[in-house]
Each structure stands twice: as structure tokens, then as C-alpha cells.
Amino acid sequence: MLRLLAGCLLFAGFAWGAGPACEVTDSGSLVAPRFDKGYIFGWNDPALNQNTLYGPNGEKLYQVVINPPNSRRTLVMSAAVDTDGMLAVSYQEFPFKGTEYGAIALFDTTGMAIRYINTGAYFATHICFAPDHSIWTMGEKLLHRSENYLAFRNFSRGGQQLGAFVPRSSLPAWEGAGLDQELGPVIGRSSLIHAAKDRIGTLLSPSPFKKEWIELDYSGNIRGKWDFVDTLDKSWQPIAFLSDGTLYANVWKRHQFTGIAVLDTASGKWKPVRTGQRGNLAGADGDELAYGLGGYRYLWARP
Q1: Four-way CATH pick for 3-301: 2.120.10.30, 1.10.10.10, 1.10.8.60, 3.40.960.10
Q2: pLDDT tens, position by position, 59-95
């Protein structure tokens, strides 16, 4: 049984200004934790549809249950939390009759599902909340991959689609088949769309060794694109996007963690940084980086 210790633990040896470290203990494993507004959303192994939300004080809030009517099963793809604790979960729904379709479920702070948003043939594979509390998604029409659909969508919490942006044809594809080589949170161990104060950032992987970081403003216009290529001797795992728009990545050499780097958007290069913390990055939350300390322990600290 997965649990998060309600009393956050302080560990010695961290730089001044580091936030509390919280420990996650589990007899199994915690897959792809999502850090958002002080909350942690976890995919519990072995079934990715067994999900748990933990609160800012470290206590387990509720087990996330997606059980829409007339559905035989669902596949959770991504999740995000708003400032008031509302949880949005995007998923693929398999009805008893007809073709599968995409949807977004909204939960209140008690874990009650209060709204289901049907996104039709569009599957919101990655999701986040913007500062104005609207929902932004990056996704695909998995059953209509030859169609030049708009890949980014913006929804209100009431379920209205507010806009659709960026033609599919203008984005890189995985071997020409789709935007992602896999669905859901497992890629990069985190949701691949993130909101900053003035922009949305998202990561695409058009080939096994090539990645592209893309930023949009809140009008849906592309602000910039940055390509980088991994090698066996050095690879980058962009995983932490702060509220000021700074992107951090874990750096690996032959599958060994070697440090942390920040993207210099002016030059398009990764620059190594020393953060004063041990452990590799597990994500970001607002203006804090989240570090994985091993054994399901995480520490939040400003860079």
C-alpha cells in the first residue's frame, strides 16, 4: 500500500533555503509522479489506472476512480492540479458500444468526479492548468493520424473548448506515425506539457535520439523551438519547467546520472548548473525544483 508520510521529514546536509523533504514508501512502486501546486499525483504500479492524489501537507487525499457511465474500461494518460485543488485527469475511454474516444475528468477536493469532458477523436495525452485556471492539452487523433488536426487545445473548467492551435503537420512525428512514441505519463517520467506564467512548454520526441522543446504563448502562438540530439556519451532529460519559464534537465552519460543542466534559449545550448542539492530532478512545482533522493523520497528547493 502506497502512503506519503503526513509529517514532512527534514534531512540534514542540504543547502540553506531547501524545502521539506517528503518520503513516499511503497511495497510496490510509484510510477511517474506529477508534482503540481504542492500536490503529488501518482500512477501506482502495476496498473497505471490505479492513481492516488496526495495533498501539500503530505497526506493521502483520495484514490482516483474514473468510472464514467456506459464505459467498459479507461486508460489514464495525464493529470494536473489547479491552485484550489481541483484535479483534471485525461484518459482514453472504451465504451461498451462504439469507438473509443478521449475525455477529461474533473474532481473536487473530496475526490468526487464533478464533470466529464468528451474530447471525441482527440486524445489529450498531456494536460496542465494555466494561471487563468483553464486547461491546456497536447494530444493526438490516434485513429486519424493522417488528418492535419490542431494538436494543442484549451478548455474551460466548465467543459467548453476555448481554442485549438498548431497544425499537426508543423510538429515533428515519431517515425511519421504520431507525436509521441508512447502515450501517457511514462515518457520522461512526467507529463510533457507544463504551464509557466506567460507560456506553455512541451517536449516532443520525433526519434529515439532527438527531442524538440516547444513553447507557446497563451494565444496559441509558437514562441520558439529548440532541437537537441542525444548520444551515448551524453543525453538530456528535460523534466523541470519553472513558473518563470526556465527549463532544467537531468544529464546522463551511458545511463549514469552526471548532473543537471539549464536550457539557454538564446544559444539553444544546455549549460551545466550546480543547485546545491543531491539527487536527480524528478520534476518541478511553481518556482521550486523537485529532487528524487531514492527510496521514494523527494525534496523541494529553489534553484
Answers
A1: 2.120.10.30
A2: 788 888 787 777 777 888 889 999 999 999 998 888 7
pLDDT in tens, 3-22: 233 334 333 222 323 445 55
Domain ranges of the chain: 3-301
For residues 294 and 279, the answer to whether their CB atoms sit within 8 Å is: yes
Contact 23, 296 (CB under 8 A): yes
Q: CB of 113 within 8 A of CB of 153? A: no
Nearest to 31 by CA among 45, 19, 14: 45
For CA atoms 160, 163, 169, 174, give the dihedral sign: negative
Q: Which residues, including other chains, have CB under 8 Å from residue 184's CB and lie 6 or more apart?
A: 48, 75, 76, 77, 78, 125
pTM for the full model? 0.85
